[in-house]
Design a protein that fits this description.
Elements (H helix, E strand, L loop, with lengths): L2 H4 L2 E5 L7 H9 L8 E5 L3 H17 L5 E5 L2 H5 L4 E4 L6 H12 L24 H17 L4 E4 L4 H11 L4 E4 L3 H13 L7 E8 L2 E9 L2 E2 L1 H10 L1 H7 L11 H10 L2 E2 L15 H8 L8 H23 L5 H4 L9 H10 L3 E8 L12 E9 L2 E4 L7 H24 L2 H7 L9 H12 L5 H6 L2
Parallel strand pairs: 1-2, 1-4, 2-3, 4-5, 5-6
Antiparallel strand pairs: 7-8, 8-9, 8-10, 11-12, 12-13
Helix pairs in contact: 2-3, 3-13, 6-7, 16-17, 17-18
Amino acid sequence: MSEQIKNIKICIIGGGSHTFIASILRDIALTKSIHGITLTLMDIDEHRLARSYMLARKYFDELKVPINLERTTDTKACIEGASFVINLAFAIGYDHWGIQVEAAERHGYYRGIDATEWNMVCCYPSLTGFKQYNVALKIAGIMDEINRDAWLIQVSNPVLETTTLVHRQYPKLKIIGYCHGAPGGVRLLVEKALKLDMRRIEWQAVGLNHVVFLTRFKYNGEDAYHLIDEWIEKKAEEFWASYVPGPWEETLSRAAVDMYRLYGLYPLGDTARSGTWKYHRDLKTKIYWYGPIGGVDSEVGWGIRMLRNQEAEAKLENAAFNPSIKATEAYPPVKSGEQIIDFIDSVVNNVERRMILNIPNNGVLPRLPSDAIVEAPVYVKGEVIRPEAIENVPNKMYSYVWYPRIAVTERALEAYLAGSKELLIEALMFDPRTKSTEQAREVIDEILNLPFNEDMKKHYK
């Protein structure tokens, strides 16, 4: 174990997360080249923090992994001395998110006011991202004050808005966003639909977070987009008739194929969950495009998601606090497939890896703002992130997909930075569900007056 490794500290904000913590702990345990680091977990919820701490302690002890483990409820203490700051915090919480959606639906905004063109993914707050923006800026502000050399890794949503906001407010901070949607989408397409060997696939994808399209697709070194065309022509209808897509399998949906036909590139991962209102007007429409549950973002899908959240919470509780359960049996020591720890290993140990990350644009997609954050293939080695040259981007990707999506980001961030309730209302004037200014004002008022949004109400005046 080198002195360099002993000096590395990973800080996890929102360390009580049920979504990512088990995967991160597994990947740390299985990445021997970073053994000896300090891992500091931070959360304002002391029970969740204790749960993650106990799970980590058990996991590392069972595998005899030398990790210096710490916990704190103090954000600044966590960030101090860290080489990497991972933000997993979802400050609004899933229960409160559901209440907000129900409030919006009472005013005619199906699936909430954040559901809009190219942002139909539930739990991706743009207009209502106030708490997420506050957390991200607090973290960035502390880093700018005491730890400018650290990397900020943004994982919790909305990745596009929070990373763009932080990059613009603190342009000298080193920041990336991480999302597993594109790699997971490629694997679904290759293995479940095309029945090909993933090891022989070469692919490239680019866009904005949750708005990512396949720009290169090769099999055995040769262009293989025609294999997607053949599957659509000969097998897709049979597939949709016999297979019920589970949550997060929207890459295989009728909507994904329709987007491919419209825009010329295949949508990956969470991209297929979005699109325009064509796919999302009501549950009946969603069921046609996404199958019997209408996709994970429908009201049916939301119910399934909440049940899965409860199961994940219960599993974490048992694995952490039940002495008769081994953590490594609950979460077998197999790499998760996430690349958060891979990124850290590449930076610390100069191991070059190709991965999909959210990075400052700086010309990657030249027709989008240079200070926006784009999702793109990059090579990471040490402190250097080298974007891959992008190919095969049709003009209509900008005009019909990325421009509308980045406009949502710009409106949400402008309203947040201005603290303007009127700009929130004005943003809803672009929404086809808005029939009057009074309707928009009433829904904003109801959301701001929810008891857990008192801080948000004070901000937007």
